Amino acid sequence: MGEYWKIILPVLMLTAATACDDGKIYDDLASDAGSEGAATVMFSGDVTGIDTWTGDYAVVVAGFSDSDYAEVSKPVSGTGLEMGGITGDITAIELCVINRLRKRVATFASTEAVKGSDGHIHFDVGKVNAGMYDAIQTAVFDAACVQCHGGSNHSAAQLNLTSLESYAGLVNAASVKSSDKMRVAPGDPSASVLWLALATGLSERWAYHHHTIITNTTSVDLVKNWIGGGAKK
To answer: Contact 113/138 with Cβ under 8 angstroms?
Structure first.
């Protein structure tokens, strides 16, 4: 091998390794793609709670067609943004959270991908709390838990998971079913009864086997990552 390649190959290998591990959860090239005839979303809104999410997720404005994976997306960082690349196959525009695979995790607001008189798609969401815990409340507790935990004036295991009660009843609260553990131990999913009940056979002998109630691994991973990130409200 010539002297030139002995010098340049290590540099090329180092550059490639850095590019593959830059910490971004999706490619910039796909986040605002340009296409002839594509529309632009004009987004506005007061979005809070963005800083409560762990690095596995991003709060974005995204375009979807017929799957749970964003065709185009752009991170939300202020009160407004413009996002191009809305092609004809995109039918819905959402203020949502996506994971590292660009899969939809939770949706906070949505609109049809219909152009206005000026040729743009206008998407105003008003004031939205897009916090990580609020997403869990909607996607997990409200969807699958409150029927037994507080929704009918009954709180199984003395745990109320309705929106005004759930956080205080979970975080740093001792479990009734597993007295040696907390329901949620911030920073430690493996010591948290909430995650153990959803992801393992811990609740197999309870009134309900919770591992079978929520079979969506995206939601279970969301709970695990929230606890691991410190269980912020």
So the answer is: no
